[in-house]
Amino acid sequence: MRFGAFVAPFHSPKGNPTLQLRRDIELAVHLDELGFDEIWYGEHHSGAYETIASPELMIAAAGERTTRIRFGTGVNSVPYHHPYILADRIMQLDHMTRGRVMLGIGPGQLPSDAFMMGIDPRDQRDMMVEAAEVMLPLLRGDAVSRTTSWFTVDNARLQLTPYNPEGIEVAVASMASPAGATLAGRLGLSMLSLSATDARGFDALDSNWGVRERVGADNGHPADRSRWRVVASMHLAETREQARAEVEHGILDLCGYMEGMSKSKLPFATSPGAALDHWMTNGLPVFGVPTVGTPDDAIATIQRLVEKTGGFGSFLFLANNCATWEATKRSYALFAETVIPAVRDMNAGRVASIDYVGDNAGTFFGAMQDATREAIAKYRPK
Question: What class has domain 2-350?
């Protein structure tokens, strides 16, 4: 299993936007040093909290500061871009990062973004499909011609081919509905299961993968669980009490996002503790039910997701930014130090080694004591 972070992001409008964006870049550096595998940056244009407008810019900056971690656009809102231009930008990033880029696609999450661009939200999913059908052959190096209601490509082709022979991985966002899984199966895409611990999202995990398998088989694109990513909210500390206190630090700011969107007060957001209790019991839209606790709690959450899904390729933190920056970095470090080796069974050889030594202690240490006595006798002065 691989591990990473999904960074929408969710930044309080009380903070310094420049420093918040810098920390989103620094997070990639931190995860790279800790041995995480991936980081995905989102695209949003309104609402005050999700302040990354261009995941490509974030990847370009973070790519220069890292050496091994892979980057995904999580996700590009495809209807907002001409598909030829978006494919060309991703291809350039692929070379700038020496093959570490993945393209995540979605229809666009915020209706306010679409309205500002004169796009009818009812058209966005069809627009995403039309664009994906053009971008995939372009990224493979093919020439494409197509005219739709919102774009034209005329014998279009990209100047560059992918950095790696296997090409650029493309993933589609999937939540409760089977729409993303259906597109993934039809076009042979990877899948990003957002809101995996939301009640509806969790219930749909196995059924959506079943759709991916069936549609993929019908279209010549066998399903590959290693290309399935599951996203959930998580914050860890040495104790559950400490983890709670660290998330309570900024949870009311996170609630402020939902309150601002609806212009109504959330009834449970009366105090940090009450808001966290509600989140951990009932969940929040998109964020689902978080794991706020210790590494053991994180392992239990991942095991629960594995049991529900039958297995997947990557677990991604949904970065919520409720804790301070220092506490957030400690949470990722604690995960890397304790959860990753447990899930991957990285220390099986070490456990087997100490068991072997212990099981044969009498033989080994008895022989060593015999050797020591013989050496003393041999070299004792006459």
Answer: alpha beta
